[in-house]
Write a structure and sequence with these properties.
2 domains, globular, Putative secreted protein (Por secretion system target), 452 residues, signal, 4-stranded antiparallel beta sheet, Secre_tail, RCC1-like_dom, mainly beta
Length: 452
């Protein structure tokens, strides 16, 4: 069989395998997205003015770029301009904006790459608000740090903190949500709690008074899952019903003519909701049958229904029933289906949809995953970065390189050098996948990279 044909078949088979098992988890901030692939690597794209992409730069990215070289990431959470992530060893990491101490590393310095928060290795759950952060450890204890102007840290005062502080003494916290200046949480007994800013009723306790300590929302112990955004909160009860409270102007979430919902108000009558995520002016949700639904403002296409109009009540997006993970940025939507494929829609001013453009989308657009397994490091002795790239490939190594050959996926040589190089200019290359062949006196290394 022709050598080029063999290479092509190998590429197609590998691409199909990589494509089918791609994105594992996702989270979205104001104008950026972070994600973990099924190989445990961490990726990000979109707005990057505070380093929230984590690639040691402040340049926006419209395609996914890998953050570092580790492949042991398991959980993540995006705030407005900062991020949190947990590794498989239970350690907690953060990066991006740190003006209010929301990174929790004891400083107020922005971080362009992930930095570890403390030395604990028992973190289990994380959430990032606009400028504050929350985390639960394996002991069920709740911790908070960052901005605290409205008491959103829940520690009894309004003083910012750049290190984690425990919220009360309880050890039965289970899940958490965070908005602009308020926080919500579920305990393992199914009770719902909130604290922080309450001008729009986002604490759900029937008034508009801020609280610097957690207060219980109602008397029900049947709450199952929660989410929060700027000035509102949403939750699903164990009976599958969907509820909202807080800012509702102009009828983004419940079309009842009321601007502020001071207590949880049911959305429709359906009782088969499974998970919920909310953006600034819209929400998306999954039902038990794995169908995807959206409602609220669609001004940027974030409802993924092909329009820019406002929609209520919740309306199904396409006719597919294969969705498993969802996320909302402020004005955009992300969803992963059961094949591990990622789809996005909505505002794309900073490239946060990850499709290589900055054009808004009103329908779900797939984010390619051909780079799965194409990491900055393929061998312990050689690192190649950045990957993907649009100008230069840097080669860092501790060995004696005798020759470098670059080929496309069909095996055609597009560049060759018979001397050691630390950098190769690929700016003139067409977009696609290339193979970097590095020769030493006794070994050959093959490293794949993407030219954007």
């Amino acid at each position: 069989m022709n050598k080029n044909l063999i290479l092509l078949l190998f590429f197609l088979i590998a691409s199909h395998s990589m494509h089918a098992q791609c994105w594992q988890s996702i989270s979205a901030g104001h104008y950026h997205t972070i994600a973990i692939k099924s190989d445990g690597t961490l990726w990000a794209w979109g707005g990057n003015f505070a380093g929230q992409i984590g690639d040691d730069s402040t340049t926006n990215k419209s395609l996914p770029v890998q953050i570092g070289m580790d492949n042991d990431w398991i959980k993540l959470a995006a705030g407005d301009y900062h991020n949190l992530a947990i590794k498989s060893n239970g350690t907690l990491w953060s990066w991006g904006s740190n003006y209010y101490g929301q990174l929790g590393d004891g400083t107020n310095i922005n971080r362009l790459i992930p930095v570890q928060i403390g030395n604990s290795s028992n973190w289990s759950t994380i959430i990032a608000g606009d400028h504050h952060s929350l985390a639960i450890n394996s002991n069920g204890q709740l911790w908070a740090w960052g901005r605290n102007n409205s008491g959103q840290l829940g520690n009894g005062n309004t003083i910012n903190s750049n290190i984690p502080y425990q919220v009360g003494n309880d050890s039965n916290w289970q899940s958490i949500g965070a908005g602009y200046a308020h926080s919500i949480a579920l305990k393992s007994n199914g009770t719902l709690w909130a604290w922080g800013s309450n001008f729009a009723g986002q604490l759900g306790n029937g008034n508009s008074t801020d609280s610097v300590l957690p207060i219980q929302i109602g008397l029900s112990s049947g709450w199952q899952s929660i989410d929060a955004e700027d000035y509102h909160s949403l939750a699903i009860k164990s009976n599958g019903t969907l509820w909202v409270w807080g800012w509702n102007n102009p009828a983004f979430f419940v079309n009842n003519g009321v601007d502020y919902l001071y207590i949880p108000t049911q959305i429709g009558t359906d009782n088969d909701w499974k998970s919920i995520k909310t953006g600034q002016y819209h929400a998306i949700a999954l039902k038990l049958n794995n169908t995807l639904w959206s409602w609220g403002s669609g001004s940027y296409g974030q409802l993924a229904n092909g329009t820019n109009t406002h929609t209520y009540p919740p309306t199904q997006i396409n006719n597919l029933a294969n969705w498993q993970t969802i996320a909302c940025g402020d004005l955009f939507t992300l969803a992963v289906n059961t094949d591990g494929n990622l789809w996005t829609s909505g505002n794309n001013i900073s490239g946060q949809l990850g499709d290589g453009t900055t054009t808004d989308k009103t329908n779900l657009t797939q984010v390619n995953c051909t780079s799965l397994g194409i990491n900055n490091v393929q061998y312990k002795s050689i690192s190649v970065f950045p990957n993907p790239t649009n100008d230069y490939i840097n080669i860092s190594n501790g060995i004696n390189i005798e020759k470098i050959i670059l080929t496309n996926v069909l095996g055609k040589i597009v560049f060759e050098a018979t001397q050691h190089l630390s950098k190769v200019n690929v700016e003139s290359f067409q977009s696609g996948i290339y193979i970097l062949n590095i020769y030493t006196n006794d070994k050959k290394y093959n490293i794949k990279f993407i030219k954007e």
